[in-house]
Fold this sequence. Notes:
134 residues; 7 helices; 2 strands; globular
Amino acid sequence: xxxxxxxxxxxxxxxxxxxxxxxxxxxxxxxxxxxxxxxxxxxxxxxxxxxxxxxxxxxxxxxxxxxxxxxxxxxxxxxxxxxxxxxxxxxxxxxxxxxxxxxxxxxxxxxxxxxxxxxxxxxxxxxxxxxxxx
Length: 134
């Protein structure tokens, strides 16, 4: 997303940012809450697309019911707080979200990375759109 527009401005930067986004989306230990050999790709994608949805970016080829299914209200609230008002995020919100799944702290940090990179990509796309209109 935004790659073609950025590539027109700076091909090297476009490639670096594209690899950065791909790496963070593919980063996984294949664990979830202490269980091993788990495919977390749908969960990671749901987080990424939910962040974009919060920023007003919608994809025609994404099944948004997957977000409702995989991201319970507490998790979505955490993502909302982290994405839209990170300065108001409190330690108790970080420690208590999704305790039912038993995410480890490293898994929670990984979700933070996904959330912040998805936010960065959304902001980056809006910046590119602004540049391309002038």
